[in-house]
């Protein structure tokens, strides 16, 4: 299928109508996202949302490739971006390129995303120079949960300069956009004003160049925990619970299947 939105188009959207981004992990969700969004992000959040992992640290290349392929099959307009999983890019630029190239070649997505600011700049430049557009991700970087010590707001109390420096470093390295996660809104606004590439916020206030949410969070499908920045636009989990309960009750009562769901032994002859 044709996927007209490309990283250069996203970059050119700086300061314009906000970019609309949602995560996607499957073909049917990607089709829904494709109809309304600019980017379908195959986030490593897939590990927690669909695979029951306690964090994103256990997500593998194979998982990202499988879900990435499912998502690109569902897209006709929106651009897919695939998260590089923990352990697939941190060692150094060559190692990162090898894995990023696999993600692009095996899924058909034109771009990857990786976590980290100043310390990942060299890798971002290496990938970009060799044909792989990179979306960066600074502020709260969930793959570093064990060194950060939790999923807290990043950039308060004098930490703001570091987040600003990280954002400037990934832009300088050639990233075509940058996710700002759980950054105070004033800081996110200053970063957005300071960069020439679009900022895509999640828990970063309304003044970013775009917004992203985890689709299962905003649909009310994933309810293990609910960060403050998640707005629930639907309660699909609750609806599914009600539907499954009704089915279970009807099966036990032998009221499902009804005659119209069953196959008669003898077909009526046509008149
Ligand atoms: O994995 C993910 O879903 C993400 C977004 C929340 C930015 O990285
Ligand atoms: Na992620």
UniProtKB/TrEMBL annotation:
| Localization | Cytoplasm
Task: Give UniProt keywords alphabetically.
Answer: Cytoplasm, Magnesium, Metal-binding, Pantothenate biosynthesis, Transferase
Q: Which reaction does this enzyme catalyse, per its entry? A: (6R)-5,10-methylene-5,6,7,8-tetrahydrofolate + 3-methyl-2-oxobutanoate + H2O = 2-dehydropantoate + (6S)-5,6,7,8-tetrahydrofolate
Task: List the EC numbers from the record.
Answer: 2.1.2.11
- Protein name (record): 3-methyl-2-oxobutanoate hydroxymethyltransferase
- Domain of life, per lineage: Bacteria
Q: Cite the binding residues for 3-methyl-2-oxobutanoate.
A: 44-45, 83, 113
Which GO MF terms are attached to this record? Answer: 3-methyl-2-oxobutanoate hydroxymethyltransferase activity; magnesium ion binding
Q: What is this enzyme's class at the first EC digit?
A: transferase
Q: In which pathway does it act?
A: Cofactor biosynthesis; (R)-pantothenate biosynthesis; (R)-pantoate from 3-methyl-2-oxobutanoate: step 1/2
Q: What processes does the entry annotate via GO biological process terms? A: pantothenate biosynthetic process
Cofactor(s) needed, names only, are: Mg(2+)
Q: Which species does the entry assign this protein to?
A: Neotabrizicola shimadae
Subunit structure and binding partners? Homodecamer; pentamer of dimers.
**Record-stated family:** Belongs to the PanB family.
